[in-house]
Amino acid sequence: MAEGGRGASTPAQAVIGADVVVSVVVNAAQTEAVLFGQEGVAEAMAEGSVFVSSSTMDPAMARRLAKRLEAKGCLYLDAPISGGAQRAAEGALTILASGSPAAFAKAPTTRSSSSRRHSPRPGAPSTKAISSSGLCRSTKVR
User: Fold this and answer.
1) How confident is the model at residue 130 (pLDDT cuts 50, 70, 90)?
2) Which of 38, 50, 66, 117 is such that its CA lies 20 to 30 A from the CA of 72?
3) For residues 52 and 85, what is the distance between their CA atoms, to the nearest angstrom?
4) Looking at residue 14, what DSSP letter applies?
């Protein structure tokens, strides 16, 4: 907090006044809990703000979460992070992102050189991330 952060006792409190909310959790269940669970961020996000989901999940679930959040007047970017521990240590992770042009315009993290845009429909990056992960695992098994 010495660097300008502030404490919060709930996810909802943490996002009050934020234009962009970035969630980096493991899976769809955790993302759904962050968004819509008890005192989740969706209840406190302002209309027009953006939720950036950086979890790899089933593409259909990404679309469902986007639809639920968009019904509240907020924007959603499906933006899983790819690269693993080694690329993270090198500072070379990749963000695979899809969402509306309005969501991209408001989310500065998706304008970096390590971001790759996909379709305007959430779910496309999750498909790519799942495919890449599966290919990596099958390569290691052989």
Assistant:
1) very low
2) 117
3) 21
4) H
In the chain, where does DSSP find H-type helix? 11-14, 28-36, 59-70, 84-89, 101-106, 124-141
- The answer to the question of residue 3 being in a domain is no
pLDDT at 97 (0 to 100): 85
Which residue segment(s) compose the domain that 135 sits in?
11-141
Looking at the structure of the chain, the number of domains it has is 1
**Gyration radius of the chain over CA positions:** 15
Q: DSSP 3-state helix, strand, coil percentages of the chain (rounded to 5)?
A: 45, 15, 40
SS (H, E, C) 73-86: CCEEEECCEECHHH
Domain CATH code at residue 81: 3.40.50.720
pTM for the model stands at: 0.78
